[in-house]
């Protein structure tokens, strides 16, 4: 039975509240075991970056993927929070004057505007290292092999062959380092690295926690890649059609900087057709899981139909 949109959004909202509470605990002023102190300014800026906004889609995907294999509770929640901390770090650094130079994020001043640029750099550094600390903690998974697999997966998704490498390609697309002409394959590779890799790992983390076999894990990775690609195409569409007030951030950035997107290369209707095809691809990847994967099916539809 297909859940209604209201049922899905309620489930997403409920997960977001749980994740928010867990992030608050992780970002408390009280030093953790082995820490000397947590500077108040740093902690306040980290909370500004990570709390009080966002749909928490990435941890939601981790929670739902783990649930496919009967894994619920603290482990999947902590793994999801680790991915969200990594994601928030990327946003803080992405907003810096040397990157996208944005003043607004989630309807609030970006960290370098609310505090200063040096603090924003340190906030990103601290959120990133905290993400790996959370994954490496036995509280996330008693089995050290599972923790190692999670750390390796997030490192590869977020590092030079994933998000960070994608960010460099994104800067190159602005013409900073030479000619900026990009064809469709270039744009797809950039988006797969910068945005898609972390979204894919968000799903794969659930399979790792659930000790899924190779076939099941591969199916979830394929689903995650389709969802990640759909997310970026939908984001490019929103960037052209939605207002900055609705999105809570500046719109039209790529167009202003002359960066090609799939909307430019395929046209608006072509981009919408791409989204439909990616939904079908994500659906097909979940066939082996049957009705148990219905929430994940709804997640990819939510990604392409969202208005903010």
TrEMBL record:
The name this protein goes by in its record: Probable farnesyl diphosphate synthase
Q: Which SUPFAM superfamilies match?
A: Terpenoid synthases
Under InterPro entries, the record lists:
Isoprenoid_synthase_dom_sf (IPR008949), Polyprenyl_synt (IPR000092), Polyprenyl_synt_CS (IPR033749), Prenyl_diphosphate_synthase (IPR053378)
Q: Which cofactor does it need?
A: Mg(2+)
Please provide, alphabetically and separated by semicolons, the GO molecular function terms listed in this UniProt record: metal ion binding; prenyltransferase activity
Q: Transmembrane segments in this chain: where?
A: none
- Gene Ontology biological-process annotations: terpenoid biosynthetic process
Keywords for this protein: Isoprene biosynthesis, Magnesium, Metal-binding, Transferase
Q: Can you supply one Gene Ontology CC term for this chain's record?
A: cytoplasm
Family assignment? Answer: Belongs to the FPP/GGPP synthase family.
């Amino acid at each position: 039975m297909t859940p209604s949109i209201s049922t899905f959004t309620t489930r997403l909202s409920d997960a977001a509240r749980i994740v928010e509470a867990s992030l608050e605990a992780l970002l408390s002023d009280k030093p953790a075991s082995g820490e000397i102190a947590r500077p108040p300014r740093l902690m306040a800026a980290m909370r500004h970056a990570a709390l009080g906004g966002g749909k928490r889609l990435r941890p939601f995907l981790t929670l739902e993927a783990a649930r496919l294999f009967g894994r619920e509770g603290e482990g999947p929640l902590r793994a999801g929070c680790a991915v969200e901390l990594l994601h928030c770090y990327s946003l803080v650094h992405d907003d810096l004057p040397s990157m996208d130079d944005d003043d607004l994020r989630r309807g609030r001043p970006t960290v370098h505007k609310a505090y200063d640029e040096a603090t924003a750099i340190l906030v990103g550094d601290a959120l990133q290292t905290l993400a790996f600390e959370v994954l490496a903690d036995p509280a996330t998974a008693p089995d050290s092999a599972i923790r190692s697999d999670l750390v390796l997966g997030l490192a590869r998704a977020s590092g030079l062959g994933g998000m960070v490498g994608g960010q460099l390609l994104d800067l190159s697309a602005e013409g900073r380092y030479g000619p900026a002409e990009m064809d469709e394959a270039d744009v797809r590779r950039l988006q797969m690295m910068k945005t898609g890799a972390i979204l894919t790992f968000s799903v794969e983390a659930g399979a790792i926690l659930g000790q899924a076999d190779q076939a099941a894990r591969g199916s979830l990775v394929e689903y995650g890649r389709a969802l990640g690609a759909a997310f970026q195409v939908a984001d490019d569409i929103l960037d052209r059609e939605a207002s900055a007030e609705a999105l809570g951030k500046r719109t039209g950035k790529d167009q202003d900087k002359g960066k090609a997107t799939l909307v430019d290369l395929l046209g608006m209707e072509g981009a919408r057709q791409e989204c439909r095809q990616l939904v079908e691809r994500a659906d097909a990847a979940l066939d082996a899981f049957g009705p148990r994967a219905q929430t994940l099916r709804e997640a990819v539809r939510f990604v392409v139909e969202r208005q903010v």
